[in-house]
Structure formats: C-alpha cells, structure tokens
Amino acid sequence: MVTTNVLDAFRLEGQTALVTGASRGLGLAMARALGELGATVVLTARTGPAAEAAAALLVAEGIDAHGRVLEVSDRDDVDRCVTDIEATVGYVDVLVNNAGVSIGNEAFDVTDEEWRTVFGTNVDGVWHCSRRIAHSMRDQGIRGRIVNMGSISAEIVNRPRWQAGYLASKAAVHQLTRGLAVEWAPHGLRVNAIAPGYFLTEMSPVDQPEYYEHCIAPTPLKRWGEPVELGPVVALLSSEASAFMTGSVVTIDGGYTLF
C-alpha cells in the first residue's frame, strides 16, 4: 500500500515493534522513536530487571511498552520469547535486530569463546530472530519490516581498539540483510539495515580523549552522534515511508567514511 500523505506514511498505530538489546543506548532510543509513532513496543534484554526498567521508562512517557527477557544467540529462547509476545502482545510487524556485543582484543589473543560470543550475538542473533518472526509475518500476511543493526565497521577497521571479530560480524550482517531482502520480497517482507558511525553510548565511550584522534577528528561534522539521532532513520525504515526500500544499508556516520 502506498500512501500519499507524508506524515501518515510514518505512523505505526496498531502495530507491534520488537527491539532487541533495548535496555539502554541505541536500542532504547530506537524503541522510544517507534513508540512515539504509535507502535506498541517490546524491549528485550538478557535480564528481566533491565528489560522491565527500560519498558517502565517508556511507559512513563506515554508509550505502550513491554519488557521481555531474551538471549538472541539461543534459537530455543528466541522461539520461546516470540511465542510469548505473539500470545500476549500481538504479532510483530517491525523487528529491529539491535542486540550486539563488541570485544576488543588483538587477533593473536582472541579466544574461541570471545569469537563465538561476538558471532553468536551479532550474526546468529539476527538470523534466529529474523527467521522466527519472518515465519509469522509470512503466515499471517503481515507486510513486515526488519531493520538490522550493521555498522561502518563492516567497511573500515576501527581504532583505537582492535576488534577483528566485530568487523567480520558486521560485514556478515550487511550481506545477510541483502540476501534476506531478495529472498523475502515476494512475501511482502522488507529487510534493511543501518550502519552507524561513532555514537556515544555505554558500549562506545567515544567522548574519551583516546578516541578523539581516530574517531572524532576525521569526521567532517567534528562530533560524535547521539542515540536520539538514530530514531528518525529507524522510523523511516520501519514504516511505509520506506515502502520502496529493501536491501539497503543506510550509513549514519557524520561523514566519517567519506574519506
């Protein structure tokens, strides 16, 4: 369905959005944006208190929000969580695969456990959540939207911390996004990704002096991003405003990767 009213194209009333890894930082900011557009939002985290606290914060702002515990790297737990959401909140119209981890370490010193942890969350988590929810979207005739958390790390080598596993995992997310977009388009499902640059979060302390030379100084805008600045981009990809977009990776990096 194509709407000719710009504001109406962004509205999400009557729809359910699931945002993984949404207890803080970028995930919480994106969940808030979707809730402000009228969506019922489900925020997941690895622990109950974290998920419930984040949901309560949005509820206090007038958003219909629910917290759920989810370990995205565990396929059985994904099935358990999504089944519960479908039974208690509703079928998911929008999935934002935000959950992710980064472990900084030199390649010679990375342990097998660290490698598996990064890929288990950043790649397997996207795979498990996307497949489980896409099955329901297809079966229920939902024109679903999936937004994956990529990164400019798929294209560059981050500094000052070495993190080869993280770079490889985000490159995989970008290609997985494109592959699923082509395969699932006939079912009315759209799959896109965002590739943030240097944003200030608990996971990415880019306000510290050691980051400035490599992360902030080369950015044309000469600043880091704030989590709230991702909200409008995710709103675009999660709504009918992007009805003719699928397989896209949208870069939001203040121009960092232009050089």
From TrEMBL:
Highest taxon of source: Bacteria
For this protein, the record's SUPFAM superfamilies field holds: NAD(P)-binding Rossmann-fold domains
Q: Which UniProt keywords apply?
A: Oxidoreductase
Which InterPro entries did the record assign? Answer: KR_dom, NAD(P)-bd_dom_sf, SDR_fam
Query: Which GO molecular function annotations are given, in alphabetical order?
Result: oxidoreductase activity, acting on the CH-OH group of donors, NAD or NADP as acceptor
Which residue range or ranges hold the Ketoreductase domain? 15-197
Family, similarity comment: Belongs to the short-chain dehydrogenases/reductases (SDR) family.
> This protein is called what?
SDR family oxidoreductase
Q: Which organism is it from?
A: Leucobacter chromiisoli
